[in-house]
Specification:
alpha+beta; Uridine Diphospho-n-acetylenolpyruvylglucosamine Reductase, domain 2; Uridine Diphospho-n-acetylenolpyruvylglucosamine Reductase, domain 3; Enolase-like, domain 1; five-stranded antiparallel β-sheet; 11 helices
Length: 289
């Protein structure tokens, strides 16, 4: 790696001020699990890194709120995994964390870093998006709220401006909603997925009032599949309806080919796994892989 300056601000406000909107070689670093790999490979050569590890403790905490959870951006994935509040209010997240990368990564990687990185293969974005999460984003101009479904704009791209940082994630309680996350990997259970599908359903028995369906990994970014959601809304589940939802999802998604599969392969995976994820949410209320 090439030499670089390391700044260690004590507040989020100070960290934001250290970012230079005119210099792409000045970057924030949270857990650094992705950024350090890029630096070692020579893909990114920073002039300055702004470490977020010393900012206020509240940005590393998890708290129950009236409507769900407040998760600080510097909260590690392992803290999210072990949190009693998360297990109670959003059990889908707890189950998903068990096959999200490995324990070494989860001990270091942060929630804010995982989202800001914009990698479409990550498991957390589709799950949080399906639950209806929103982000608080701060800059020298103040703060704004961004729905996670509007946060990603393309392959490794987000709406974050050059002097903006994620401060917190706000996640609605899962409540009586039933949910599942399923991933398809070509390696171990915690490997990068070729496809991820998150489903959150509001309904009674097999009658679905509404559904949120999110695809990731097979697409350039985590994306809600609103056509598939519309197929299910207000209906009672049967095999034909599930097939129609899978077909709608496959027609709607914008697939990408990579080392984990071709576009036709991923299209068929999505068609099959939308059906499976909806059924799993209804019958087992569990997360699968």
């Amino acid at each position: 790696m090439t030499p670089f300056e390391l700044a260690e601000p004590k507040t989020l406000s100070d960290a934001v001020k250290l970012l230079d909107p005119d210099d792409a070689t000045v970057r924030p670093i949270a857990g650094g699990t992705a950024l350090m790999l890029m630096m070692k490979a020579g893909v990114f050569r920073p002039a300055k890194l702004v470490s977020l590890r010393g900012i206020e403790a509240k940005y590393s905490g998890i708290a129950a709120t009236d409507g769900g959870l407040r998760v600080g951006a510097m909260t590690t994935l392992s803290a999210l995994e072990r949190s009693a509040e998360v297990r109670k209010l959003a059990p889908l997240i707890t189950r998903t964390m068990l096959t999200l990368s490995n324990v070494r990564v989860r001990n270091v990687a942060t929630v804010g870093g995982a989202l800001a990185h914009g990698d479409p293969h990550m498991d957390l974005p589709p799950v949080l998006m399906a639950l209806g999460a929103k982000l608080t984003v701060v800059s020298p101009k103040g703060e704004r709220t961004v729905a996670l479904e509007d946060f990603f704009t393309g392959y490794y791209e987000t709406v974050l401006e050059k002097q903006e940082l994620i401060a917190e994630a706000h996640i609605p309680a899962q409540g009586a909603r039933r949910a599942a996350y399923m991933k398809v990997t070509t390696g171990s259970a915690d490997d990068w997925p070729a496809l991820g599908v998150a489903v959150v359903i509001d309904g009674d028995g097999k009658a679905i009032k509404s559904a949120r369906i999110v695809v990731s990994a097979a697409t350039a970014m985590a994306t809600r599949l609103k056509s598939a959601e519309a197929v299910l809304a207000g209906k009672t589940v049967n095999d034909k309806l599930l097939g129609d939802a899978g077909d709608a999802a496959a027609a709607e998604a914008d697939f990408i080919a990579d080392v984990r599969g071709s576009v036709p392969y991923k299209r068929e995976l999505l068609r099959v796994y939308v059906r499976r994820a909806v059924r799993q949410a209804l019958e087992a209320n569990g997360a699968g892989r």
